[in-house]
Here is the input.
Amino acid sequence: MAQNRNKPIKLPEGGQRPDQWGPWAMLAGAVLTTVGFLMAFLFVGPVNGAAVSGVEMIGGSMVSSKLLLSQKIFFFHMPAAMISFGALAFGCYYCVRFLMTKNQRFDTCASVCMEVALLFIVCTMITGDLWTRFEWGVWWTWDPRLTTYLILMLIIIAYFVLRSALDEPERRAVYSAVIGIIAFVDVPICYMVTRLIPSSLHPVVLREGGMTGEMGATVAVIMIGMVCVGFGLYRMRFRQVRLAQRVEAVKEALDD
Amino acid sequence: MNPVLVEIYSTILPSAPFLIGAYALMWCAVLVYVFIIMRGQKKAEAHMAVLEEELEELRKKGVVGE
Here is the structure.
């Protein structure tokens, strides 16, 4: 006990410079996604659907098919999915770093990355499901991309169930790191499944050039905005979790 | 109204609730997460302030190390 009293207290650090960028990144993300939203509706023309029985002149061009407003969901759906993949990649990196070093800081980084990934997966699911409901008349279909993405979401939910089920920090971090790496294995499968199974309902937009220049510019603006939002959320959450860990460390020190 | 135009615009209004719902729910999800972070941050900061004061007092008394 006497030794404990004189021992310096090692507190989890937090609030470094990148943490201060969090709110600014969020602000930049909010501005860019708002600009992207306006571009999606005001700058990019509606996509053509099924042919109609005639031709009409609209806005200086001949239109002979239905105009699809529902396609506007795509402008946020695809970037949200890409950010979820990115967050998982960082999560996997931190899981590997944790397993190499056993530094609890990396475990915290990984769990925050997983939270951000889950948030963007939920956003992707919401936007995708509402589009599916309108266009196909169903809430869910067992399309390969949807199925692999659902599996990804379930693995991440399992990650958090496991974390809440284990009390011992070391064991919890090791098991979580393994699940985090397994989750990332599903990312390339999910991404490549539309190429591996061409019958998939999801189009291969990037490689096959399914977007016009205006669409590409809009997606790029929203993508950059979402990267900023994702980074901002990550830093803000990381700062909060580290502060909570500091509180626990100080409490323990006072108890000693 | 021109029947061809009616056909061209036939999916615009029916899809609007789904489009609005998609954007609204997505931003709601993000805002809920931001709210959770802000609440947790305030709570942790309040705890930290109290504990650091207590720790400082104990340090002055020489009960804990620097």
